[in-house]
Amino acid sequence: MEAVKTDKLFVPALPTLWPSMLTGRRAPSHFMPFGARNVRYFYFARNAIWTTVKMLGLDAGEVLMPAYHHGVEVEAVVDAGATPRFYRVGSRWDVDLEDVEKRIGPKTKALYLVHYAGFPGPVEEMRRIADKHGLPLIEDCALSLLSADGSVPLGTTGDIGIFCLYKTLPMPHGGALTVNGSRQYSLPEPPLPPTSSTFSHTVSSLLQNLELRGGAFGRSVRGMVRGLGKGAVKAAEIERVATGTQHFDRRHVDLGMSPFAHRIAQAQDLEAVVERRRRNYFFLLGRLRDVSAPLFNQLSPGVCPLFYPLVVDNKEQVLERLRARGIEAIDFWKYFHPACDASAFPEVAKLRRSIVEVPCHQDLTPEVMAEVANVVRDALVPERPERKNVG
Ligand SMILES: Cc1ncc(COP(=O)(O)O)c(C=O)c1O
Q1: Does ligand 1 come within 6 angstroms of the Cβ of 357?
Q2: Domains of the chain, CATH where assigned
Q3: Which segments within the chain are labelled E, that is strand?
Q4: How far apart are the first and last CA of the chain?
Q5: Which ligand 1 atom is the nearest neighbour of the CA of 166?
Q6: Is 175 in the pocket of ligand 1 (CB under 6 A)?
Q7: Region 301-310: what's the mean pLDDT?
Q8: Span of 4-18, 65-79, 120-134, 233-247 with lowest mean pLDDT
Q9: pLDDT band at 227 (very low <50, low <70, confident <90, very high)
Q10: Quick check: CB of 44 below 6 Å from ligand 1?
Q11: At 79, which helix (H) or strand (E)?
Q12: Got the DSSP string for 175-199?
């Protein structure tokens, strides 16, 4: 399902929930983590990371992590008791494998690889380094659900796969931990999240969908319901456990995934999701490569892009312009975790100043993408210096 063209551009950052997804159901999927033999579902990916540190007994040791990180995955590792150490990532999101190996020391207890926005990191090479040093490999696919490196699904090479579901699929919440290989861990089933929280996220996503499809009418209904909803949430003291937040909160570390979220996952046409994201990415690549040098000039087979990483010089200004025109662009990974010395990783510091996340998800039609491309092109035009009024 895709949105129809409406009067004003509305391009939400995440895909929205279509009413038919509340009742639809498809055959079990082979995609990770749904097809994994050994999987535990959580409210967030961060809970899966915290649990991994405890489960593997890394809490008294060091975990070697990329200097290019979100920050919340590092917070989860720290909260669970481990110490993060950082390795170099280059200006094209490329992991410096030599640096990884150089930084392994007696206290290193695990290697941590992040696959950025669906683009596969060097997981085979990291596997080899991990095996050589007898370390477990954690493969963070929080931004890379449904993505593969050729025929190898991301999250299947590491000892552990970490997934976030709600960034790629229109789910109210959802994360997963998969254990690969033969080792078995007995993990308690996490408690269900508050129903009110699931309900609140679901309604928000349905309203976004209404706006996406309903133009001016949908927009005014959404505005009205949001106003009422905020009051009701406050009045009823509904606990809304926010997703997509910057920081780790120990109070939510146990929360699992609701059966309702599982149901929505089962209603998804995952092959179509991958195909549409790739189509939209290619479209932007073709329309933008002459105004902004692409970070990736191609999309390898199997890659499911989470967004289009737009490289800009004037991030704040571009973000402001895109948002003013109805595109929910996101400031991608602005901050280092405080445990990471920014001055030691200049390429990462530059990336943090220059990547804007432009949506290319499954709800966006070719017509909408054409408008997105035009708006982005406009936003990239440098501001003309103000003309002085002479005379
Ligand atoms: C690399 C990475 N790992 C883990 C997470 C945590 O995901 P969640 O919000 O599901 O906890 C994020 C969040 O953006 C992330 O970017």
Answers
A1: no
A2: 29-179 (3.40.640.10), 193-254 (no CATH), 270-380 (3.90.1150.10)
A3: 39-42, 62-66, 83-87, 108-114, 137-141, 148-149, 152-153, 160-164, 175-179, 308-311, 330-331, 355-358
A4: 58
A5: 10
A6: yes
A7: 98
A8: 233-247
A9: confident
A10: yes
A11: helix 72-79
A12: EEEEE-SS-----PPPPPPPHHHHH
Question: Stretch 196-216: mean pLDDT, rounded?
Answer: 91
288, 377 contact by CB (below 8 A): yes
**Token pair of 228 as six digits:** 């009422």
For the Cβ of 123 lying below 6 angstroms from any atom of ligand 1, the answer is no
CA of 384 to the centre of ligand 1 (A): 38
The residue whose C-alpha atom lies closest to atom 9 belonging to ligand 1 is: 244
Using a 6 Å cutoff on CB, does residue 143 contact ligand 1?
yes
Res 7: pLDDT: 59
Non-local (6+) Cβ contacts of 296 within 8 A are 92, 119, 309
> Which parts of 90-168 are beta strand (E)?
108-114, 137-141, 148-149, 152-153, 160-164
Q: Are 187 and 55 in contact (CB under 8 A)?
A: yes
pLDDT, tens digit, for every residue of 244-280?
Answer: 999 999 999 999 999 999 999 999 999 999 999 999 9
Question: In the prediction, which pLDDT does 232 show?
Answer: 61
pLDDT at 391: 41
Task: Choose among 250, 313, 241, 305: nearest CA to 279.
Answer: 305
Label residues 240-249 b or e (16+ Cβ within 10 Å = b).
Answer: ebebeeeebe
Cis peptide before 120 (omega within 30 of 0): no
- What is the secondary structure of 266-332 as a DSSP string? HT--HHHHHHHHHHHHHHHHHHHTTTS--S-S---TT---SSEEEE-S-HHHHHHHHHHTTB--EE-
Mean pLDDT of the chain: 93
Read off the tokens for 129: 């380094």
Angle at the Cα of 139 from the Cα atoms of 110 and 296, rounded to 5 degrees: 125
> Which of the four pLDDT bands, split at 50, 70 and 90, describes residue 65?
very high
Whether 239 and 225 have beta carbons less than 8 Å apart is answered as no
Distance between CA atoms of 310 and 325, rounded to whole angstroms? 17
- Range 67-93 average pLDDT: 98
| pLDDT, mean of residues 137-163 | 98
Cβ neighbours around 390 below 10 Å, total: 4
